[in-house]
Design a protein that fits this description.
Elements (H helix, E strand, L loop, with lengths): L7 E8 L3 H12 L4 E5 L11 E2 L4 H7 L2 H5 L4 E3 L1 E5 L6 E4 L8 E3 L2 H15 L2 E4 L2 E7 L2 E6 L2 E10 L14 E4 L3 E8 L12 E6 L2 E7 L5 E8 H7 L4 H8 L4 H5 L11 E4 L3 E4 L2 E2 L2 E3 L5 E2 L7 H20 L5 H25 L7 H5 L2
Helix pairs in contact: 1-4, 1-8, 8-9
Length: 362
């Protein structure tokens, strides 16, 4: 005879245990809320690396993880280099930043650090996915596996799919079909003299990104549109490596004697926004709220900031501030519009190629 799992209750259910979801969970626990985090629980062996700007330090400090990030194996990032609009390499360094250096992250370790911090804060974890969500009498009734959960608030941290925000009839607007075709090159792949900066180089197919990691490893990504990957067979190691060898600065960071071995990873990197990003009893955080092109280098920074800000808005709403969630949604919309304007200017400054990727962005 089958048994039915007992119902659970909490103040806030968070769907998704990535940086945004865990940032929200830690913040809500500090506000005294009972929190359940529902996450599929599958952690890849590696995730494409990402540079985290120095401006993240106050957010990491608020979450109580700054010391673990600064003393961990993450590689310091002292600035950004780019060849965009012409072949000349320009550099923006963090020498005069009031926050010091940033980081080239080991993403798996970074995500695990935030998950551990959320556990220590007292969140309750469930492995699985939210199969259904409906609003009943001012409460959310959610089903995870055989368990029904009743929650006063719901936070969608399911990534750009914004799976739960759609239950509220929010609309997800997508701007492009950008993907990253990424490889983790092993220890010894980077030249010894590689600076501790990220590097972006535009190309006919789109643009390339690379950053040094610990022990001489590096991450290299080709950024282009999803349909163009198939046209160029860019998902195959041979064609990917051949295209990499047509670059100037990115190629210069990689030892020619170390050809690509192992699988490539194709990762969604498209721009999207959820409208509205919050409403009665719910909010979207991270990419579920606003997902940006990696050229903006704001993905994890936005995840942390939206997680914390949405948690504060939920706490204010629970305390009687009826405008808190609407104000959060307006802030997300304004931030995304500002990003779109900057993105348009950025891509408009590269005029060397009349290829589908660039034509679409003009």
């Amino acid at each position: 005879m089958g048994t039915h799992a007992p119902d659970l209750a909490c103040d806030v259910l968070i769907a998704g245990g990535g940086p945004a979801g865990n940032a929200a969970a830690i913040t809500l626990r500090r506000h005294g809320a009972a929190v359940i985090v529902v996450d599929p629980g599958r952690m890849p062996r590696w995730k494409p690396g990402e540079s985290l700007a120095p401006e993240a330090r106050p957010l990491l400090a608020r979450l109580g993880v700054l010391d673990r990030i600064t003393t961990g194996p993450h590689t310091p990032c002292f600035g950004n280099q780019s060849a965009w609009g012409n072949d000349t390499l320009t550099e923006t360094d963090f020498l005069f930043s009031p926050y010091g250096a940033g980081w080239h992250l080991d993403r798996v370790l970074f995500d695990r650090t935030l998950t551990d911090a959320a556990r220590r804060a007292g969140t309750h974890e469930l492995t699985g996915r939210v199969r259904s969500a409906r609003r009943v009498g001012g409460q959310w009734q959610l089903v995870v596996g055989a368990t029904t959960i009743h929650a006063r608030y719901l936070l969608d941290a399911t990534g750009a799919a914004a799976c739960l925000a759609r239950h509220t009839r929010a609309a997800v607007t997508r701007t492009d079909r950008l993907v990253a075709v990424a490889a983790l090159l092993p220890s010894g792949a980077s030249r010894r003299e590689v600076p501790r900066t990220s590097l972006v180089e535009s190309a006919a197919l789109g643009w390339w990104y690379t950053a040094p990691l610990s022990a001489g490893a590096c991450v290299v990504m080709a950024m282009t549109d999803a349909d163009l990957v198939g046209q160029r067979a860019l998902h195959t190691p041979e064609r990917w490596w051949k295209q990499l060898m047509t670059t100037t600065h990115v190629r210069g960071r990689v030892r020619h004697a170390v050809p690509l071995q192992g699988r490539l990873r194709v990762v969604r990197a498209a721009t999207s926004c959820t409208h509205p990003a919050a409403g009665p009893g719910w909010a979207a955080v991270g990419d579920a709220a606003t997902a940006s092109d990696p050229i903006a280098a704001r993905g994890i920074l936005t995840a942390l900031a939206t997680g914390i800000t949405a948690a504060d808005a939920v706490n204010a709403d629970a305390a009687g501030s009826s405008e808190a969630l609407d104000a959060y949604a307006e802030r997300i919309a304004s931030s995304h519009e500002e990003y779109l304007r900057a993105r348009h200017i950025c891509y408009g400054s590269e005029k060397r190629w009349d290829t589908p990727f660039w034509a679409r962005r003009r």
